[in-house]
């Protein structure tokens, strides 16, 4: 591959065609951070572009940097130029490797890139070897693309919906995805809000009333789900089995007591003297515990005698 990569050269920003797949997953905040970094430090991560026969450039890696440079009005940029005049399959392999490993674009974008490579004729086995990923990883990424409603993907491409939010929405039945995505965009819901709503909607135990509310009033549905979680957690604490807790404490104390006894029998007298204060405190605690245990036995015996 090295012979296909030239030295870094200066290219005209206007001649570089952006990568649509990567552009769909570039978050606005990432572009703003990149612009700040460029203004302070310059371009930290050099974009990679593919050179075509007609002299144009296709972006292979660095969509965030390219977008930031254009918004800053910068006309020229340094880029690593890769020869793309060879066979299409070789180009697809190179694009997949560079973009996936360098830009870490997220599951949805990775799935789209994998789909492009498979469509170009790259065997899945070669993709696995190139990326060092398992067959299940490749299948999961490709499955994500096929599960996502095309209209939801168009919302991602237009910048209306973040890619990571779309990844969550892809878990919904495909017939419900666009309506949910439209609602999420109108309400300005972040991924952190979309995730619990999707989980609740997919839960077979979720009442139809709540499922309808998720689409009609998602913020109120979120409050309702949060209240339910708090109630469930409180109930679990109240229903905690006390005998099981006591058994756990006893087992733990047995283990600790045996371990402490072995340690004390093995150490020298000089070292043992360093812990006299702590051991006296422990002795006092154990005596108090012994008194409590004896009181407990007395209560149990009285209860047995009374019932008898």
Name the CATH architecture of the largest domain: Alpha-Beta Complex
Would you identify the regions where 5 or more consecutive residues have pLDDT less than 50?
1-5
According to CATH, what is the class of the largest domain?
A: Alpha Beta
One letter per element, helices H and strands E, the order comes to EEHHEEHEHHHHHHHHHHHHH
Strand order of the largest sheet: 1-5-3-4-2
Structural class: alpha/beta
Strand residue percentage: 5-15%
End-to-end C-alpha gap: 90 Å
Radius of gyration: 31 Å
Q: Considering DSSP H and I runs of 4 or more, what fraction of the residues is helical?
A: 55-70%
CATH superfamily of the largest domain: Conserved hypothetical protein from pyrococcus furiosus pfu- 392566-001, ParB domain
Number of domains: 4
Count of DSSP H/I helices = 16
Mean pLDDT score: 79
Describe the structure concisely for a colleague.
With 308 residues, the protein is α/β, with parallel strands linked by helices.
Task: Provide structural commentary.
There is one protein chain. With 308 residues, the protein is an alpha/beta fold. It has four domains: 2-147, Conserved hypothetical protein from pyrococcus furiosus pfu- 392566-001, ParB domain, CATH 3.90.1530; 152-238, no CATH class; 242-272; 275-308. The chain has 16 helices and five strands. The protein is elongated and about 100 Å long. It starts with a strand and ends with a helix. The relative contact order is 0.06. Residues 1-5 have low confidence and may be disordered.
Keywords:
single chain; about 300 residues; alpha/beta; Conserved hypothetical protein from pyrococcus furiosus pfu- 392566-001, ParB domain; 4 domains; five-stranded mixed sheet; 16 helices; 5 strands; disordered N terminus
């Amino acid at each position: 591959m090295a012979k296909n990569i030239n030295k870094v050269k200066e290219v005209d920003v206007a001649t570089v065609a952006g990568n649509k797949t990567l552009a769909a997953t570039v978050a606005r905040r990432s572009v703003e951070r990149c612009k700040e970094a460029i203004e302070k430090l310059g371009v930290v991560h050099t974009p990679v572009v593919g050179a075509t026969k007609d002299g144009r450039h296709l972006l292979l890696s660095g969509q965030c940097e390219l977008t930031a440079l254009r918004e800053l009005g910068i006309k020229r940029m340094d880029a690593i130029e890769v020869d793309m005049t060879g066979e299409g399959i070789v180009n697809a392999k190179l694009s997949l490797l560079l973009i996936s490993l360098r830009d870490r674009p997220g599951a949805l974008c990775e799935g789209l890139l994998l789909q492009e490579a498979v469509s170009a004729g790259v065997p899945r086995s070669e993709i696995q070897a190139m990326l060092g990923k398992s067959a299940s990883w490749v299948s999961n990424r490709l499955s994500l693309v096929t599960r996502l409603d095309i209209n939801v993907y168009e919302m991602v491409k237009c910048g209306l919906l973040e890619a990571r939010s779309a990844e969550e929405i892809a878990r919904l039945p495909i017939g419900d995805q666009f309506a949910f995505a439209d609602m999420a965009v109108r309400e300005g819901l972040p991924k952190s809000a979309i995730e619990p709503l999707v989980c609740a909607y997919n839960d077979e135990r979720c009442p139809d009333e709540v499922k309808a509310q998720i689409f009609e009033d998602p913020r109120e549905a979120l409050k309702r789900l949060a209240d339910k979680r708090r109630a469930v957690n409180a109930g679990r604490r109240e229903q905690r089995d006390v005998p099981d807790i006591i058994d756990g404490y006893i087992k733990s104390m047995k283990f600790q007591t045996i371990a402490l006894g072995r340690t004390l029998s093995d150490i020298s007298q000089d070292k043992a003297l360093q812990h006299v204060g702590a051991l006296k405190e422990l002795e006092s605690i154990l005596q108090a515990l012994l008194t409590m245990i004896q009181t407990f036995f007395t209560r149990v015996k009285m209860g047995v005698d009374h019932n008898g």
